[in-house]
Structures are given as structure tokens and as C-alpha cells.
Design brief:
Strand order of the largest sheet: 1-8-3-6
Shape: extended
Strand content: 5-15%
Largest sheet: 4 strands, antiparallel
Number of helices: 17
Number of domains: 4
Helix content: 55-70%
Order of helices and strands: HHHHHHHHHHHHHHHEEEEEEEEHH
Number of strands: 8
Radius of gyration: 33 Å
Structural class: alpha+beta
Length: 507
Amino acid sequence: MLDNLDGILLAALLVLISRAASIYTLVPATIRLFKLPHVNMGERHIMWWGGLKGGLAIAIVLSIPESLDGRQILVELTLGVVLFTLLFNAPSIRPLITRLGLDRMSEEDIAELQLGLLEAEQRAHDVVDRLTDANLLTTKSKTTIDTTLADIFDKDAPNADTRRHFRHAYMEAIQLESEELQELYRLGLIQEYTFLDLRARLRRDKDAWANAPSDTAMLSDKPSVNPFLRVEHTALRWMRERNVLAWFLATFQRARLSQGVQRDIAGILCGEAVMKNLRLRAGLEPSDMDKVVDIYQRRVGRKRKRVDEIRGDFPEIFATLEARLTQTAALASAHNHTPMSFHHGNIGAKAFSRIERLLNSAKDRIPAITNPNAGVDPVELIEQIPLFDGLSSDAISALAARAQTVTFLMGDIVIGQNEKGNALYIIMYGIVDVFQDDDGAKTRVGTLSRGEFFGEVALLGDEVRTATVTAKTSLTLLRVTRRTVLSLAEKHADIAERLEHAHSQRR
């Protein structure tokens, strides 16, 4: 092997260079792409220098057939690189960590250590108190043991920066919120998609607070960017004016409404859990807890307001959703308890099987979420459109029968300027804002409400939208497509005549 020392050193150098190229380029790119926790330069140095080689590399090179030319040199180079990492990289890792200061405790680490010591000491004292209450420990022995425990947990306990106390109180609140969220998912109050969405938000929030240079910026309480909602809005933009996806759009919007309500309900319950249990956490300053509770009170208030708005905008669908969520959670709780009763021997196999069948059949009877009913007759709305004014009752009824009811949530874009579309929208319930974009300057040109309409030019063949319409509140719209109007024009002469007249006026 010594005969190939030059080759071994060159191979070790190439391995270090290739690892450095991947660590110092791919790691920061991956962090930015997937919004992962920050990895500082010192930690990257350790990731680079700590790339030890061992059994796997040797096993791979030994698996090369002996008949292959150059096998022996590959084996020697591999063993040489492995020995280099074991003799040089491995022993120097700890000095390098010390040199880079990675083994020094940060203020966050100190705060966590203090809290951990307090919790550990409390658990230890609980055992002593339990034995004392059972008259198994004398008062003198209890005093001696309490003093010993105090010396153990107070010895060399570091002091944390006061600013970090509040940050750690907030981190404790996030932990309480995560625990409550997990319980809500277990009970079936939230679906998996909502659970993953909210859990991802909590992780982003935790990382942001852990890595923030100060608490001032974090106290703005602004909502973080939500990748799940970005996906929802992209899917909505793709579907909203595609007639063949009308049924899927209705289903998608019902799901979004349901998920939104679930998010807000989960947020309210998680916030209430934090405000109730945070004061029970040991080692937190009362003033810090008051600040955190105040943040959660504002959040819970906003979520309650949104739930009340949805209840007012869609009373029928909200009542169905409310009943569905409650029944699902109740049956899920019963379903989780039954197997435990069976395994503990409280009920037999026959009773367990009967209860399982009963619960499964009850799940099938939970009411489904249907499209909201705005309580407006589509015929009356269509009669108000100037293009259809004066049509026969048969033609109006035919248009109303073929029209589609679609829903949008507050903030959704119904139609976008310069996008293609071929439908007229009539507002059954809600309010929209109309904007026009002129060379980047966005101007609101109007607000429309119940009974008013937009997009009528698309029925005449002009598919490019001239404005952007955004839902100011939750919306229920009646959509009449150009294809529907043209197909009915073949059966109703007055519709064909009205279209021809409109075309001639435009010309």
C-alpha cells in the first residue's frame, strides 16, 4: 500500500474536494428550496470534514470481481482513503468543533437547559412527596433528600438572557399547540391534509422563532407563507373557468371550505389549550406567559371571527359541516376506545365485533356536505341580465336549468385580467371587487353585489377578460357559459335573435 502512497493522498484530496463541492452548494440550495432550518457555515465545515469512510466503501470495492484489471489498486486506494479519514479526520473532529465554537451553549440552549432542570427536579420531588404521603419516608429523610436534590439540579446551572425567557415561553406554547393538534387529529376533528398543513406551519413558526435575531420582528404576528394554500390557489386558477371541470370545481370548493373551517376550529381549540396549560409549565416568567397568552388571544379572536363569517355566509353548508365534524369526532373517539376495552378484557370478541359493525355503519350515515343554497331563484337572476331581457319564459327556464352554481371563498380570484374565459357570472350571494391592471398599476374600478353580473362579453365570443374580479366576501355565483347559450340558441329562436342583435350592436 505504501507503494501507492501518492495515489492514496491524491484520492483522499479528491474525496475532500468532491464532498466540499456538494456540502457548500447543495446544502444551502436545499435549505432555501424546502424552507429547512438554517445550517451555519461552522456546521457545514463539520459536515464536510466529518465525512468518514468505512465498512461500506470496503465492502463495495471487495465485491469487484478478481478478474477485473486494476482491482488491487482500487482496493488499496479505498483502504488508504478509509485509513486517512480514520487517522486524520476522526481525531480532529472534536478540536475543530471546539475551534468553531459549536460546543458552546447558545442562549436558547441555556434556556432549554434551565427548563429541563426545573422539570426534572419537579419530577424527582414528586416521587419524594408521594413516598412521604404514604408514610414511607420520615420528615427528616425528606428534608435531607430535598436538599440533596436541590444541590444536584442547581449545581452549575447557567443563567439565561432575559430576552430568551420570552422566546422560550413562546416555544413552549408551540409545543403545547403541537400536542393539542395531534390529539385533534387522533379524534378525527381534522383530516390528514389539514393536520399536515397545520403541523408544517407550526414547524415553520418554531424554526423562525428559534433562528430569529430578535423577538421584535416576530411579534408582528403576521401569518407565514403557506405552501399548501399556494397549491390550492394554483389548482383553483387552473379549474375556475374550465367548463368540463365544473363538477370537480364544486367538489374542490366544498373541500376548501371544509378545510378552512377545520383549520379555524383547530386553531381555536389549540389556542385555548395553550392559554389554559401554558401557566402550568414550570420555569416560565409570569410576564412572558402573559405576552404569549395575549398573542394567542388575538389569534383565537381572528379565527372565531372567520368562523362566524362562514356561518353567516353559508348557514346551510356550515350546519352540515358542523354536524359532520362533530359526529365524525364522536364516532372516532368511540372507535379508538373499543379496541382498548377488548384488549384489556372488558368486553368479549362477540361484543367487540358487534360494536365495530355498529360504528362502521354509523359512519356511512354521516350527512355529506352539499353545495350551498343562496335562496335565490336562478330564473329571477337571469331575467335581470340585459342580454336576456324579454326572452320567453321557456328560454329563461332553459338557461336557468343549464346554469351552474359555483362558490368562491374570500380572497379568491374569480376571473383574471388577460386570461381566457367564456362565461357570464351572476352574483347570488356576496360581494366582489373589480380591478384593472394598467402597466403594473392596479386600480379598483368597482364593487358588485347580489343580483349584479360580470363577464357578459365572453358570451359574444370575446374570451379575453378585461378586468380581474376578486371575492371580497364568500361568494355564491350563477355561471352561464357561452356553449350553453349557443346550444340553446339552436332550440330557441329568440335567444339566437338576441345574440345576433348584440353582435350587430358591437360591430
